[in-house]
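Exercise 7 asks you to align residues with tokens for two separate proteins.
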Amino acid sequence: MNKFQRGLNYRNKIVVVFSLFIALVMLMVSIYSYKRESVSIIVTSKQSAQINVEQIGQKLDMQMMLLNRISFSLAVNKTIASNMEKLIEDENKKQEVENILTSLLISWKQISAITVFPLNGGTLFRSRTATYSNIQDIQKEEWYSQLSSSSENFIILPVYDKDETIFGAKPSLSIIRKIVNPESFVLEGYLKVDFPLTYITHNVLESSIIGDGVYKLQDQLEQTIISNVKDKEELPLFFSKSVEPSSGAYLQNVNGNTYIVSYAKLDQYPWSLVYYSSFKKTQNKIQRAYVIQIAIFSLCLLLSIIVSYFIARRLSLQIYDLKKGMLKAEEGNLNVKVKIRSRDEIGVLIHSFNRMVVGIKDLYEKLYVAELGEKNAQLQALQAQINPHFLFNTLEAIDALALSKESEVISELILKMSNCFRYALNSQSNCTLKEELEHCNDYVDIFRIKYPDKIELRVDVTEELKHIPVPRLIIQPIVENAIHHGILKSGKSGRITINVRKVGIEELLIEIKDTGIGMDPVKRKQLEERLRTGGLPETDRHIGLMNVNSRLKHRYDTNYGISIDSAENGGTKISLYMRIS
């Protein structure tokens, strides 16, 4: 993570931080909004289902009130109530009552059958439209004892399959009323009116149920009166939970499917309507809300990235200008000047940078003149000293040869020595690569005279490179180190290889490799550090190497100079990098 942060620039960091902040805020808002909207959708769906079942309950109440009024109108009919005691003996009264009941059956389509129970008993009588039963036949019924001992004038019986009605064998709902003489207010009998349940289900429930909803009309004992569940064994799966309040709604899972359960108690009768509606529509609404929240979140995130990019671009524009100026100054262009676009902290920093570049330029010009004079003095001093060890060794060789009177060898040695002195003391700072290599060859020949078959020199360079101008005395000091500190200390014969080649278009690489004793790793690292920082050598041993490195860096660039590749007892390779000019 830290590596990733370090790899981002200032502008991208602002974009990432701002976008992450907006994304985090929007994510929290989206989650909160989604949860709140989901809860709101569920609550709204529950309320809607509850209102719907309450409206159905009101319709049922109205329908039951209508059926009750129908039964009441029959119970208070004067002709029926006044002739109840004469129905058994008087056939005319029977016919008169039968005509009234038949006309009522024709007028009121809601009635499926009417039964009259006179208290004076008599023979059971049946007709196509109405039934007269003996009172002894119904005294064993549960409803009889309940109604006769109650102060109420009517009772509603639950659903049962009537044996014979004008509609055939169909489930019916019965209302039983007391028949009271309107003059004497004496109980004369009972009136039982049957209503087909299809009337209730078709006109109220079936027309109000949506989709694959499941409903149940139950009494105060939670016994089923009406339900659209075809298989009675499935009733407990749905209607297993008691409903206590007058109305309400909750969620319930049935066989892996979620339903909204809404219920309401009727106002006029001790019945409750329980309705199961599918939760799929509500789930679809929640899913749409989820998709909408995702879309809003994505859009806001995209807008935040775009806005943060432009804000970061505006804020980082001056920083980019400062960065470009610093890169140009690093490349050596001290004439650079960054434009100041504001007076804030970044503007003050740019102003300080411009002043610093001007100061560095002035200081560099002063130091350059001083250092140039110093380098020239060092070069002249180097050219003047020509390593006393070399001079002493050469004189010893001349002395030894003189004793043996080998005059031709002495002449050659003196000639090469003269060429070396003449080349080293030349006041010109530049020469061709060919001249530098010839000087190195003369220098090695002198040692070969003193140490026959001890030193071998190989030079690999193309003709086109021999005419390239190079600084004077940049190869010979390296060769000298290779002989004294590499080959001679090994006590064995050795070889020095000089390989010159072009690198790219404008760079030249000169590699001087020997087969000497190499360098200790610790001392090699110390020497590399001094070459990198331009420090002074600890002894005169590396003064030539340090001088060459300093001259190359000063003349070309700090990217050029000397690199070392050496291993203990594995020889040393010195590489000189310079620009072709």
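Second protein for Exercise 7:
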Amino acid sequence: MGSGKRIILLFMLLVLPSGNALAEFKGLFLPGDLRQSIVVDYDYRGQELMPKRADSSSSSQNRFSETYNAGMEYSILHPYVLNGHLKVGLGLDQEMYSSPTSSYSSSGNKYSYDIDGTIFKISPTPANFSVRSETMHIPVPFTPGYDVTTDSHAVGASFKHKILGLRVDYQKTTSETSGTTSDSRLAISLLTLKADNVYKNSATEMQITHVSSRLEPLSSIDTGVTKDDSYAIIGKNTLTSSQKDKSLSSSVTYREEKQTAITKTFTLGESFNWQLGKALNFGASYENSSVSTSSTAGGTATDTTQQIGTVSLTHLLYKSLSTRLKVQGRQNDRTVGRETEYSGSASFFYTKKLSVADSLTLNYAEEYSVIDRQLTSGGLTAIDEVLTAQITGNNLLHQTNVIISSIIVRDQANPLIRYDDRDYRIIQNGPFTGFDFSVIGSRITEGKGLLVTYQYNVDASVNYRRSAHGGGGAITFYEGTYQVYANISQSSQEISSGQTGILRPSSSMDFLLGATRNKNGTYANIVYANSDSDQVKNQYIEGTFRLTRYFEGSSVNAQAKDRQTWYGVTSYNAEAYTENQLSLSSDYARNVFSNGVLTLRATYFRVVDANRERNDIVLESIYRWGYGKFFLEASGKVQFRDTDGDKAMDNQFHLRVTRTL
């Protein structure tokens, strides 16, 4: 047998499962069932503004779209050789805007296709690919709107082995706008290499990622190309003893980002756990991280090195009482000096089962720390502070006196993704800094994990200590019907020595007491809370009542919530005032006409304080009905707003009809 034929045979035996390597030829192209659908969508939005000190104005928007989608599975030669999906979509968008003084209409086409496939999917070396393209028309009121075309290409391959596993992926995405005042093209390339190894009691993982992006303006009024280049190397190894009572984990991470500046981050971590008998566990960890930042134009780099060591001892008694002692040391060496911190804490958590549905829980924690700071200048850097995005919250950073221009926000799950001022708005109130993520078009959604790096001003030379303690508990009785809970915490900060201009002695106390009744669809809760510190002095009482009832073919929900808050005078709040928030809501759902469901909802919201009064009334209706391959959804909404005499009325109607073929 010739060498060429031997190579081909060996290749087939490698990439194909043995049971199918010489399987019967099934066909060059094997299409699956064709799935088709037609979607007709109509949306109306109207608004009338009635300010008390100006003339009224109104506007409306009508949008109509039609979309045809088709897709199917396919195979080539054999489902084990190559199989995947084919999808295509075609559509038309039409918009019409009108106001008393002008009207405008626009339209645009949309199309998309999506092809993906897996090659030798059950072999030791499977591979995959995808090709996607989509053109969408983005409506903008009283303008022709603009188009966005996004093209994506991706390939990947794996090598499966009981000892060593490898995976490589490459993806390139290009997004281009057409019809805006400043069109641009954004190209992003992502290359990822993963490897893992399991040998006896050792498990090793490694990942290398490289991301490059290029933002190129296409209009003549903009000049310059923005390039970003980043890569990261992550490695982790875990060793476990033969008795499974000891484990040692080691990790190393290196990340380099090149944008307006070059930032290099290196982190080395060690973690050791030892199960000392059935109830006692010993843990120790050490982390060393360094960050170096320098301008792409050259100049002196800014270096920060942080070392953190932690030792803990945890005891669990009869699965009811858990106690924990922890000691931690931290040292930061910076270009401008150093900062050290020593802390210790003790805590316990107790739980007692009173019956099948009732229980008693108690908890307490005590913490003490000493910080010594010796710097030549009063500027520090917070590295990768974890923040969970809230669309309606204040999203405050831990540190005060933040330098706004130094803020860098990245994705916690994928730190190579960096957000900018198109995704958030920074709010600064006195020494505090927070974020507003309700920006239209933001890539940051509710609950997204973020990493925030920033610089902040501090006193250069100071020694101070912090202490905190707190506890609480809850008891549930009468088969889970009633619950009473309470929490209290107190903290203080005292200056031992040094020159202070920003840092101040402070103390705070927070207290909360609540009770709940929940039985047979009736829920009632009352809470009293008090916060007292140099920055915040407020107390509130809040009551909630919710009723849920089910009948044959229908359901009713109703809720009332009222909160009265008293704000006191602090160094950041010049005068005392009160605020009341009242919300009432109810909804009714019923089966109407075969399997159709009609939902009616009403909401009332009112806020009153010393300087404003706002009243909102919202009425909604939603109807969903399906029969065979036909599905209909219709919804309507009317909202009335009144803020200190400035009134507005919003109307919305949406209709979607889907027919599968």
